């Protein structure tokens, strides 16, 4: 049988999985790498764009790649409970994998700042949801303290197994393209994912699977861009709630990824994020969440500035599924028409 059995099964030799590690999987990974010709044309990009659509993971985001490893290792070490702080996606993923493993899950969310779809996931998977009257950074501080005091496994990306699992995204891109891209565009929040991808590309390169390495191009939202500004942001703001983080845990490794690869980390405005969000959907038929669109927004910005010579191969990571946050889509698009049940009335609006 050759059915897809998740990233641990596929990439075991690159992961810290032993003979006694129970593999807890929801068959994550194997997400599509979509050739985005329409998008390239509409933004005037003279190379090739591929979108890695991580929104098609089991809980709708890239977090599942890291969570399968983190939860498997938590079970191996005899833990009965896991805990995380989250802007929404980590909590959804932790709750699902904990359910599969039979572990208790505790998730701390910044009150009023998590998209409803993500909250609904944590609840239905059976996690204990605690809304903190503060932001993500406050919640992560509490989680790390509790991790010191109780035998509960932290499954934020402070857990190195999360980084290990998430690096498999880079392996899949290289397997699909037969090489690494020239540029890798990615949104940056707590900075775990940019760290993971760079680790993955380097390991694949070292193993002789590819001959090149990409430049890592990280994008923060302007109102929550601590790495770009060089200091923590006390009260981060952005429409892209998933990356509304003022003091990222993986700050240093993210900077290292950018420096080693010859890439950059920069900020993008909410307006540019939302324009990219709509453009990805309307040109490619892909609905990602606002934070995910930061990668494409960055590509659009650099293309307009004349950054590229032409002929480059670019991959943008679309980190999460747009269905998690339908409120934002409804808010930024034209509202549906309401008409009487009458053919004559409706036909006025149909262009052929
Ligand atoms: N995109 C989405 C959709 C996210 O949910 C996140 C992070 C990121 C990008 C940024 O990735 O933190 O590794 O730099 N979400 C975390 C969470 C913080 O709690 O779900 P990062």
Describe this structure in words.
- 42% of the residues lie in helices and 14% in strands.
- The protein has helices at 7-11, 37-43, 63-76, 89-101, 116-124, 136-149, 160-166, 168-177, 192-206, 226-229, 251-261, 270-284, 293-304, 326-332, 343-347, and strands at residues 33-35, 48-53, 81-85, 104-110, 128-132, 153-154, 183-187, 215-221, 264-268, 313-318.
- Strand 4 (104-110), helix 5 (116-124) and strand 5 (128-132) form a beta-alpha-beta unit.
- Helix 12 crosses helix 13.
- The radius of gyration is 20 Å and the shape is globular.
- The N and C termini lie far apart (48 Å).
- Bound molecules: ligand F0G.
* Overall residue-averaged pLDDT value: 98
Rounded Rg: 20 Å
Helix content: 40-55%
Q: Major sheet, described briefly?
A: 6 strands, mixed
Helix/strand/pairing class, anyone?
Answer: alpha/beta
The residue ranges in which pLDDT falls below 50 over 5 or more consecutive positions are: none
**What's the end-to-end separation, in Å?**
48 Å
Percentage of residues in DSSP E strands = 5-15%
Counted by DSSP, the helix tally is 15
Bound small molecules, by name, code or SMILES, are: ligand F0G
Question: Count the strands?
Answer: 10
Order of helices and strands: HEHEHEHEHEHEHHEHEHHEHHEHH
